[in-house]
Amino acid sequence: MYIGEFIQKLETIAPPVLAEEFDAGRIGLILEGTANIETVACALDATPHVAEMAAELEVDALVVHHPAFWAPMHGICGRNADVARPLLANNINLYAMHTNFDHADGGINDALADLLGLTDRVKGSLEIIGTMTKPFSAIAEILGCSLRVWGDISEVTQLAVAGGSAFDWELIEEAKDLGAEAYLASELKYNIARESPIPCIEATHYALEAPGMRALAQREGWIFIEDIPETSIIP
User: Fold this and answer.
1) N or C: which end of the chain has fewer CB atoms below 10 A?
2) 126 with 112: CB under 8 angstroms?
């Protein structure tokens, strides 16, 4: 497939028009490589490890969720160089689909809702609300991470889920208005937890968003490169 056709395909999957304003200049084709696309890998993040693995796998394109370079650059040094070097050296295209893939049908949040078995779904601005078919203990096992809970979730059946840093006042209020009895996302701030109208359940950013990229890889016949951040809890 020619690179132009490949980009058109990706823009059909996650239309750039769906992206939030802060993603301007950070999504789409980030590094240009070969014009001929045959083998594709995808990952949640463009880390040095993922870039090295893409080179080892001899792929033609690497598709990631999080933009590789957040700040404007006047030079490519340090970690940015560690990401760019193996991709440029092996003529690998790097493409990012961020908030446009959050909002897209079949994107990050739909994949998360599918994974957790939510039924009778309603979609908000970003979050998805649905009826739980699994207990929270099973959800933690599926996600592969502990859940930090603020509030009483003993009788919750209607759950709102949103991948990434989505503990936002407006989203939580919207989810509640749409019937949510609890809200699952990552990177919860103290003030939001204390004042939220419904219980907040915090998982890791990776656990909530990697499933969307895994599902995309499976649908498209791509290679998924796992790169789980190393974390631990000190009791």
Assistant:
1) C
2) no
pLDDT digits (tens, 9 = 90+) for 209-230: 999 999 999 999 999 999 999 9
**Domains of the chain and CATH, by start:** 3-101 (3.40.1390.30), 105-205 (3.40.1390.30)
Neighbours of 18 (CB within 10 A): 17
| Whole-model pTM over 0.90 | yes
CA 144/CA 208 separation, integer angstroms: 10
Nearest to 65 by CA among 164, 188, 171, 161: 164
| Matching residue, tokens 């084709």 | 29
Tokens describing residue 98: 């961020």
Residues 6 or more apart from 182 whose CB is under 8 A from it?
151, 153, 156, 158, 159, 160, 198, 199, 200, 201
Q: Which two tokens stand for residue 120?
A: 């009778």
Query: Ramachandran region of residue 56, left (φ > 0), alpha (ψ -120 to 50) or beta?
Result: alpha
Structure tokens at 53: 């693995």
How many whole angstroms separate alpha carbon 211 and alpha carbon 209? 5
Per-residue pLDDT tens digits for 35-90: 999 999 999 999 999 999 999 999 999 999 999 887 777 788 899 999 999 999 99
Go through 55-68 and write b for each residue having 16 or more CB atoms within 10 A of its CB, e for each that does not: beeebbbbbbbbbb
